[in-house]
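Entry 14. Ran structure prediction on the chain below.
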Amino acid sequence: MALVLTKASGSKAKTVIALVVIFDQVTKQWMLNELSDNRMINLFWTLRLNLVFNSGMAFSQGQSVGRLIGLGAIAVIIWLWRSMARATSSGSLIGTALLIGGALGNVIDRVFRGDAWLGGAVVDFIDLQWFPVFNVADSSVSIGAVMLIFSSIMNARSVKKAGAES
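Output, structure tokens:
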């Protein structure tokens, strides 16, 4: 049971990827301009805007292996792009597109925000104060992963149900 990747669904996925990358990069540039002087903006409750540079991976782990993380992210992007043709539902297609868009947003930082190839740091700015600081791309990756998991569960249930009925 596979969703056939048509021109319409393929363009939907490309649109999602483009929107994520654009929104991610625009918000990062905005925060670089607004928060460059160590300024923090408290919004409400524990949510604040706070500029942080992460040369590692999630939760600031692996600070010394940023280039390897960047190369790994590029490989994952290529694999995800190719896997979109095997999407089983609109949810898995959009989830994959969100993952690609988020990964691309952070790879762009690594490529263009440093002195050497893949030597840049990812710009993070959404600070809950009780969770690691993150950005739009990170959110996109998380939402895309949840969509893929949910889509896989729903697909497995529908396959199991179809098998029980036959």
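Residues 8-158 form one domain. Will compare against last week's run tomorrow.
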